[in-house]
Design a protein that fits this description.
With about 350 residues, the chain is mainly β. It is built from one helix and 30 strands. β9 and β10 form a beta hairpin. The longest helix has 4 residues. The chain is globular. The relative contact order is 0.13. The mean pLDDT is about 95.
Amino acid sequence: MTASPLVLVANAADGSISAFALHDGTLERLAVTDGLPGCSTFVVDGERDLVYAAVKGSSSDEPAGILTLTLDRATGALEPDSRLDLPDGGMNYLALTRGGTGLLGAAYSGGYGISSPITGGVVGEPVSTVRYPNLHSVLPSADGRFAYFVSLGADLVAQYALGDDLALTPLEPATAPAPAGSGPRHLVLNDAQDAVYVITEFSGEVLHFSRDLHDGTLTPQGATTVFDTSKGLGHSELGADPLARHLIWGADLHWGAGQRHLWGSERTESTLGAVSVGAGGSVAAPASFTVTETQPRGFALSPDGTVLVAAGEKSTQVSVYTVDGDRLDLRQRAETGRGANWVRFV
């Protein structure tokens, strides 16, 4: 078994996941696992070395689904074990809860979310299904008692209690609002679990919500931009072509070291920027931006926050950076595959 951390990258256009070993801030590609059509999200159970990957249907006889794959840490190879079919459409985001015994999913085109049990690595049929337009992501609270689904189409975060059987019950109120037309997309919770932050696709903002630790409800607190305002980008909207019209195209959001910064990506100008997070949870716009791989839909930081790996939908490489506060220093570009759009450290 290798002692090196691993980095997994989904290449949606190739239908593959690349596995890299991380050595002293640079990547060595170990393996590429094919047979994952349209894979654009996955989640990793590092304790059990299992990867749950969302795939698109390859034919009328094989709908979209979630594949369970076993990860060989020494070789980086992924071996398929089981599959859950999703006849209502593929997932755009997956998250684990309850120590890897439950899975949450959000489907953008299908406009639905699920909660499913996991037994021995096998994802069961959904216990609950929720519906909002253009659901883009979902995360549970750390204690597994609550779940938050982000609806880009309805400009809200839907908030639920998560029962012992993984059933989803709406909180009161059932939703927390995002600004009209902002297009909320991805979310993160802080370590203290008293704040949630959401990146928006159309307005290019990071929204700050306070979170009640007792009842799980979210309350809007403030926002800041996460795109380069000097580039003259316009406010986008559902169905617009952001490249043709030079519009904001926010994408991914991740914590930096010590949760002092929130890194966000914007795809029209292909930038990464670090939003400052104050002691009370307030947010302030990035002081500078780094141009990265073309159309950075997905990126990730190492658990200690010292390395950032960014993928680009229009690039076949990933960029590897060392992180110094709110600055990035390019160390390497490594070949991965076509349509690279999801990155996770293992």
